[in-house]
């Protein structure tokens, strides 16, 4: 069994050594750039960990793991255009550093490249792996569109929100694990149990992200604390607060999310105080724990020795007590 | 054997009847819209014609043909954003009708959808078909990037131009024919000969397009005559003219392509006269005929009865004497 940091090292080495076509350079330089910006390599690591549970060789799974990371970075490249984001992981975004056309087209090439990497599996599982991958890819796009739609609607329900994060975040984690298991020659039902594990872990992970935006340690979080509040982003916390706030609390919340050009510090403080009063952090943590529990239940069903599941269990635990 | 218009009808029927997912509607409505804008359906028709040469059922090839058309329309949707084009086939472009984010994301979903449709082949050719398709897709993106690069460089050689149109236009026609042949259970070498046929036909087709921009019948061409001249687009004609013009001709050409806010009628007239004097139309037609000849030579090598090749031969001939 390999531990997480060994797998991350392996993935980073593979990314660093990867050769891309060189012409036209405008298409491939942005790919090298975004892939080199770093990140936790969580999705390919999960894929390799799932593979490692079974008989398969993780070296053989490495191109497929890389394909998942290329796909993930393709979505970041295109999302950053849509979000008009200037920065990504401390560096300029691709559309800011080059231009929008290059970010669109490099992203398109990355999606093709991701498919080519996903195809580096045995014939016996080729169709299955590609079906799962296409399903993931469609889901992630749907999730992104629904997330954008949320910006212009007044009311979003908790159920709609959870479905959005399932599509935008959870299905990719889930599919990575399922594909990893299949490459590792798992039984169908074990691969499906790992999908469920990943899906619930992804949901818990995103709720944790919503909580960290406000309650994370500013030194460790890596993003601006309160960024979601400033942008009126419809997170679990805001949606829940809008749902349960009454009378003066409700009025105050409406005031802060409708006022333009608010002082950001005042706004973050006021809404954080409101969240504290309403106890939405606890409600989010409760929901997160439900998903974490479901994830572990799914992991329990995977038919391999307990010992082998240690790494995945630890990974899940670390993810949910993380500070960044 | 089916003739071209029967195949186009079949494809249009399939497109009209196609069901897409309905949520989120913002992703799928633009797909239905752009697919419904029409067009000659040349690529899927070629795919079906190639299939029809051999034993395969064209009904079985229909989803794959549709996949090629979805892919083609994905490239149009993204290219229109990059070109800031307001119109496509007489209708608004997707980014103009909705917005850029929707055009990016709908396009992404279309690329995934295209892969899903390409997968509707037998296991025995799945890997081969997807390899060809990925190769095409990468080539088209590379061609588009090189084409964009041409806008900001002073000198483009004829060889660079021909390589650009090979990637941007010809490989998709070529790959469509090759895939169609494989779905029709052709021998490898016949599929490859059809690739060569399509590649050369595509090159000839694009040169014809360059010629029609100026010498096409305005009532039939469907685009503004002289549009390439007005935009200083580096077509075969302009590149060749820049290469061979001397003294006063060269000075006059430079004048028109560097002057800003020129009267468009005057400019189109002046450059057309220059082209006539330099004989670049004849040079383009000569180059086009070389490719047409190569295409027909490749078609001759395909090991099926002459009679069966009639439709493809006619298609090629029609394409090269077309007025729109």
Major interchain interface with per-chain residue totals:
A-B, 37 and 37 residues
Please compute the radius of gyration of chain A using only Cα atoms: 20 Å
- Main β sheet profile of chain A: 2 strands, antiparallel
- Point out poorly predicted stretches of chain A: none
Q: How many DSSP-defined strands of chain A? A: 2
Q: Structural class, judged by helices and strands of chain A?
A: mainly alpha
Strand content of chain A: under 5%
Task: Detail the topology: elements first, then pairings.
Two copies of one chain form a homodimer.
Chain A: H1 4-17, H2 25-35, H3 42-52, H4 58-82, E1 87-88, E2 91-92, H5 94-97, H6 100-118, H7 123-150, H8 158-183, H9 188-215, H10 218-221, H11 227-230, H12 236-244, H13 247-258, H14 264-278, H15 280-301, H16 306-320
Antiparallel strand pairs in A: 1-2
Helix pairs in contact in A: 1-3, 1-4, 2-6, 3-4, 3-8, 4-6, 4-8, 7-8, 8-9, 9-15, 12-15, 13-14, 15-16
